[in-house]
Amino acid sequence: MSVEALEKNKTIDLRKRHIGPSCKIFFSHDPIKIVQARGQYMYDEKGQRYLDCINNVAHVGHCHPDVVKAGAQQMELLNTNTRFLHDNLVMYAQKLQATLPDKLSVCYFVNSGSEANDLALRLAWQYTGNKDIITLENAYHGHVSSLIDISPYKFHQLSDAEQNQFVHVAPSPDVYRGKYRADHPNPASAYADDVKDIIDKAHKKGRKIAAFIAESLQSCGGQVIPPMGYFQQVAEHVHKAGGIVIADEVQVGFGRVGSHFWAFQLQGEDFVPDIVTMGKPIGNGHPMSCVVTTKEVAEAFMTSGMEYFNTFGGNPVSCAVGLAVLDVIVKEDLQGNALRVGRYLSSQLEQLKRKHPLIGDIRGCGLFVGVELVKDRVTLTPATAEAQEVIYKLKEQHILLSADGPHRNVLKFKPPLCFSTEDADLVVEKINFILTELEEAQGLKEHGSPNIETEGSKRKLLTDENGHQKHSGLIHSKGSDQGAPRQFKQNKRLKT
Ligand SMILES: Cc1ncc(COP(=O)(O)O)c(C=O)c1O
């Protein structure tokens, strides 16, 4: 029996008519219709298999049978809200807490990453009595109004006048392309000192800091791995100023980084955020999310006198799903798999870097890996169009990958945690082939060779993953060379 209710053209037609045009689709000139998925594979209406390298929501694998069964069984019994006693709620809270440091002991269950971060801001405002928020350059924390305000990934097109006065943007702690790089003697302190400067300037204007919010590893911001010790020092400055620290683990939590269950733990045991927000992988596709905080913050929230009620958050079905996800992570040692396969993937990519001048940087932890493409390893000119070309060509080879970061030149790996070394080999082999073709077409030479322009061999590249010359949806243009004429200058300084 076909799993497709409508023919593809009809689906496209109805989507155009009834779905908001700002809801973008991958590869809009030739979108993929996915009708089924299992593990790390997705299938289109013709049964064509795609290797999914990007879906961090399907954390334990698409449609994992244990998760599906747990949700279905609970749905047959009961689904209601948290105003009734239910074992699933408390058992899930207890099990989730066991993955966290003791201090983080109180949960609020909500329905999306945006809801979690919005609630985190309310908690911070209530606990501190302050208003101002420090966020990172290129950060994205969600789609609701309060979060667009603190998401430079979205609001950076606004003029200074339009930007909210209570929001302060600190530099992204990116040691590859950022303000302080790997050759800086102490990038962690330098980036943390910038946060302190922001606090001092805000104080001079009579403003007070409620919170510093950051992803433990920036994802949309370009797969950025902050230097060790950064968060400890930021926390010290923020706490001194009366604020608290919110770690957004919506993309990076639940064992993805391999060595730890939570990405903030990469910084060491001496860093514990005051609030952790979770989403995407928490329900393996079931819409649920969570805010975990300290007793002190939760008690301060209570003193406002306002009840916190959330119709769907923490319902018995969501909690059954959440429990099943935690069980599968342990039963199938998916955190261990993330560590092993992540290391393997990174090492294979490192080998590609030695060969391909277009690869500027490989960075990652576990199955959270970024490959930054540059036209020149000295100037770091982003290879935006080339990254989009790679994505597009991989799609033709039935591999789904995306490119992100402020210049949209970072290939992002964040697959389901059941990703295998064979999957890694397949995608690396295809990228190798595509980069070789691209470099040949551009007159770039492989390892050790100068970067020579060959007029006749230049060819036109796509500028976004949807195959459009002009990118129309995501706000990413600032600082990007998207659509700019490409010039492949002779560069004898090319290092490998
Ligand atoms: C880091 C981060 N935080 C929060 C969100 C918002 O989550 P949701 O789309 O579930 O509201 C996202 C979504 O992409 C995200 O990447």
Automatic annotation (TrEMBL):
<dbReference type="InterPro" id="IPR015421">
    <property type="entry name" value="PyrdxlP-dep_Trfase_major"/>
</dbReference>
<dbReference type="GO" id="GO:0030170">
    <property type="term" value="F:pyridoxal phosphate binding"/>
</dbReference>
<keyword id="KW-0496">Mitochondrion</keyword>
<dbReference type="GO" id="GO:0050459">
    <property type="term" value="F:ethanolamine-phosphate phospho-lyase activity"/>
</dbReference>
<dbReference type="Pfam" id="PF00202">
    <property type="entry name" value="Aminotran_3"/>
</dbReference>
<feature type="compositionally biased region" description="Basic and acidic residues">
    <location>
        <begin position="455"/>
        <end position="468"/>
    </location>
</feature>
<keyword id="KW-0456">Lyase</keyword>
<comment type="similarity">
    <text>Belongs to the class-III pyridoxal-phosphate-dependent aminotransferase family.</text>
</comment>
<dbReference type="InterPro" id="IPR015424">
    <property type="entry name" value="PyrdxlP-dep_Trfase"/>
</dbReference>
<dbReference type="InterPro" id="IPR005814">
    <property type="entry name" value="Aminotrans_3"/>
</dbReference>
<keyword id="KW-0663">Pyridoxal phosphate</keyword>
<comment type="subunit">
    <text>Homotetramer.</text>
</comment>
<dbReference type="InterPro" id="IPR015422">
    <property type="entry name" value="PyrdxlP-dep_Trfase_small"/>
</dbReference>
<protein>
    <recommendedName>
        <fullName>Ethanolamine-phosphate phospho-lyase</fullName>
        <ecNumber>4.2.3.2</ecNumber>
    </recommendedName>
</protein>
<dbReference type="GO" id="GO:0005739">
    <property type="term" value="C:mitochondrion"/>
</dbReference>
<comment type="function">
    <text>Catalyzes the pyridoxal-phosphate-dependent breakdown of phosphoethanolamine, converting it to ammonia, inorganic phosphate and acetaldehyde.</text>
</comment>
<dbReference type="GO" id="GO:0008483">
    <property type="term" value="F:transaminase activity"/>
</dbReference>
<dbReference type="InterPro" id="IPR049704">
    <property type="entry name" value="Aminotrans_3_PPA_site"/>
</dbReference>
<feature type="region of interest" description="Disordered">
    <location>
        <begin position="444"/>
        <end position="496"/>
    </location>
</feature>
